[in-house]
Amino acid sequence: MGLEVSAPWYVSQTEINRIVAQKRRWIERKLAERAQWREREGVGAMRFEDGGLIPYRGSRIRIAVCGAPKTTFLADQATLSLSLPPTAETTRIRETTLAWLVNQAQCVIGERLSYFENKTGLVPRTWRLSNTRGRWGSCSSSGSIRLCWRLIFFSDDVIDYVVVHELTHLKHMDHSVRFWQALQAILPDYVRAREKLLGVPAGELEF
Ligand SMILES: [Zn+2]
Going edge to edge, which strands form the sheet with 72-74? Predict the structure, then answer.
């Protein structure tokens, strides 16, 4: 697995090499954690072809490309039938799958958000899906919430954690003790869900 280092123009290669060498163990550990995660979630095996597997809500679903009249998901067989002919190119399969995933993210995340809004009385001014690299969610000081569509790859407890995390920011705009206490009052078991996300930046899930 390669490593890309970003540095400002005024930092010399020697300096970069020195820093990378210093941080070597940490970098190696992080890369290993990500590799394990990709393996576990089947993310490394994403193939946009008939029979290809993609992660979805904590499990894996199979892509079927056999000319279905419209794109449909059969939950019992965990199969996503795309409305594409068997001859469809990889790029079209990828685009159609992506469009379906983003649409599912909008529905599923939107539902979880409404559920917790009703439960807690915490309501953002607006919310929308985001595609930012390296952030699962954010909450602005004006009360707008953004949630990364790639959360749809994770089990619902992880989605709930990020949703509640951002809703809690409507009350506490920091990560103080009071913030975590408020979050725990809504989601007592949040630590386990949070651990599933650690070491997995949103941008890691290339799509
Ligand atoms: Zn936060």
Answer: 53-56, 59-65, 79-82, 72-74
CA of 179 to the centre of ligand 1 (A): 9
Residue pair 116/163 in contact (Cβ under 8 Å)? The answer is: yes
Q: Point out the least confidently predicted range of 28-42, 75-89, 126-140.
A: 28-42
pLDDT at 41: 61
CA 128 to ligand 1 centroid distance, Å: 17
Percent residues over pLDDT 70 in the chain = 86
Return the closest-CA partner of residue 111 out of 146, 150, 163. 163
Domain ranges in the chain with CATH number 3.30.2010.10 = 42-204
The structural architecture, per CATH, of the domain 42-204 is 2-Layer Sandwich (3.30)
Q: How much distance in Å is there from the Cα of 43 to the middle of ligand 1?
A: 25
